[in-house]
Backbone:
């Protein structure tokens, strides 16, 4: 046998030195591993550098280096007066900033816009910060109370009635519409080839209108009697409070468990009464500012925020309706979605602005901005419905089956199990639609609503600031505003997505 000793496994000579490993971290590592690691990447890096050189550098020179920062009129932004190549004319933006923010809103009343924006920020920030408490109360104030307060702040005016009067007026308008339709059919029956059929249908419609008239007669009589008193608003308010609180009490369980619901209802109406007194709504409220005087960033925010807030519940309802087992609901949802997705937004705006009044009763009119808001909400809701439906399709069937095995109803299964998971899956798609809607608000300028871009284009006609760089400066400023809002929504959506999908991280 061969003798094996420890020296047999020990190297006698020194190993030659090897080169140091290639650095793969830091700036040098980035250049070596990402930008110049292959001929294709080298070519793309050079092209990207050239693109940045010919876009970023001129933009920085125009916006900052060669820009004019002080001046009182166009002469400060002319090259022959400045003595150098003139870039952005920022004195023009400074002079036109009130118009770009408020439009033609009266200067003495602009504090109302500022107050509405401050209230929006104060109520929205607690909703966006996850660690802050009382999310339910804050959401109720932002989504239900704030829109009413903002309307009376921005538009002005007061209230001439409350819930009972509003309900009676709406039912009376519905009755008038039915009766008017019946009279039209009867008038057509005198000259039409199908006169007997039109005469029968017209009389039936008139009969239905008469029946509705007598059904709502006690309500309209009570409204007219209340309006005859000196304090019609507060009498109406008291009756509405008592009636609604009674309904809430019985729906909450009556004597056994309705006390808490009754207390919440009364507290809500007390808060409404305080707002009415603070804003003096029972005596005319603030001076009315017509919506045709609104403009600038104010209109952009009103249209985009209203569209974003209202389109999501519409989309959720349509997505659930499209998956419903009831054929009528499913067919209606499909038809609604396909119709609104099949027409461009500009067509919707034109129809809502110019065609919709033709279909309304003669004594009923809707403000132009409201018509645009309704059209945008329905249009965006159809797109959101498909986004939500994609999230619902991604939820395994076993989720619903497990909930049914636990005895949960369809409403609880959908609201507590299926829908939260579906919305979590489609956060990028939802926010992408929100960003698209925020940018598409510029289309309202076509229907005589001056948003940020509309007010900007209107400011170009001022000869006091007519320079070669005025238009470029204005569009650059508008682009910066749009980028800040859209980039902010994008970053926040990524934060929410990471937070809600923490369990799926590697």
Residues:
């Amino acid at each position: 046998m061969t003798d094996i000793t420890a020296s047999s496994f020990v190297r006698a000579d020194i190993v030659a030195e090897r080169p140091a490993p290639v650095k793969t971290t830091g700036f040098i590592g980035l250049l070596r591993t990402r930008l110049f690691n292959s001929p294709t990447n080298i070519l793309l890096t050079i092209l990207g550098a050239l693109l940045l050189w010919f876009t970023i550098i001129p933009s920085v020179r125009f916006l900052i280096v060669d820009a004019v920062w002080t001046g009182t009129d166009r002469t400060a932004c002319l090259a022959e007066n400045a003595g150098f190549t003139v870039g952005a004319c920022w004195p023009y933006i400074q002079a036109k900033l009130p118009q770009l923010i408020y439009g033609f809103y009266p200067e003495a009343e602009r504090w109302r816009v500022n107050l509405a924006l401050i209230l929006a920020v104060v109520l929205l920030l607690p909703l966006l910060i996850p660690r802050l408490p009382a999310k339910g109360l804050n959401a109720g104030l932002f989504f239900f109370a704030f829109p009413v307060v903002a309307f009376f702040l921005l538009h002005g005016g007061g209230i001439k009635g409350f819930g009972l009067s509003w309900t009676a007026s709406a039912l009376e308008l519905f009755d008038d519409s039915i009766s008017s339709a019946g009279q039209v059919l009867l008038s057509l029956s005198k000259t039409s080839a199908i006169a007997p059929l039109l005469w029968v249908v017209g009389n039936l419609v008139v009969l239905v209108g008469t029946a509705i008239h007598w059904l709502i007669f006690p309500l309209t009589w009570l409204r007219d009697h209340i309006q005859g008193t000196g304090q019609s608003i507060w009498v109406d308010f008291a009756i509405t409070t008592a009636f609604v609180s009674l309904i809430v009490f019985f729906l909450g369980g009556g004597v056994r468990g309705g006390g808490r619901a009754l207390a919440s209802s009364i507290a809500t109406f007390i808060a409404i009464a305080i707002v009415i007194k603070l804003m003096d709504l029972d005596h005319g409220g603030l001076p009315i500012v017509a919506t045709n005087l609104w403009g600038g960033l104010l209109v952009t925010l009103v249209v985009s925020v209203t569209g974003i807030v209202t389109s999501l519940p519409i989309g959720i309802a349509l997505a659930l309706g499209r998956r419903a087992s009831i054929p009528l609901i499913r067919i209606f949802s499909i038809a609604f979605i396909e119709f609104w997705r099949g027409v461009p937004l500009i067509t919707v705006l034109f129809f809502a602005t110019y065609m919709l009044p033709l279909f309304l009763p003669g004594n009923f009119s809707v403000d132009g901005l409201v018509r645009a808001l309704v059209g945008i909400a329905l249009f965006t809701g159809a797109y959101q419905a498909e986004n939500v439906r994609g999230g619902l399709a991604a939820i395994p069937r076993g989720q619903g089956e497990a909930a049914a095995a636990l005895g949960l109803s369809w409403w609880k299964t959908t609201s507590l199990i299926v829908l939260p998971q579906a919305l979590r899956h489609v956060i990028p798609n939802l926010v992408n639609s929100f960003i698209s809607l925020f940018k598409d608000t510029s289309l309202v300028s076509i229907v005589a609503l001056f948003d940020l871009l509309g007010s900007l284009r209107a400011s170009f006609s001022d000869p006091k600031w007519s320079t070669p760089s005025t238009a470029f400066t204005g569009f650059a400023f508008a682009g910066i505003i749009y980028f800040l809002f859209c980039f902010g929504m994008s970053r926040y959506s990524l934060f929410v997505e990471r937070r809600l999908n923490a369990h799926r991280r590697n």
Notes: The longest helix spans residues 470-500.
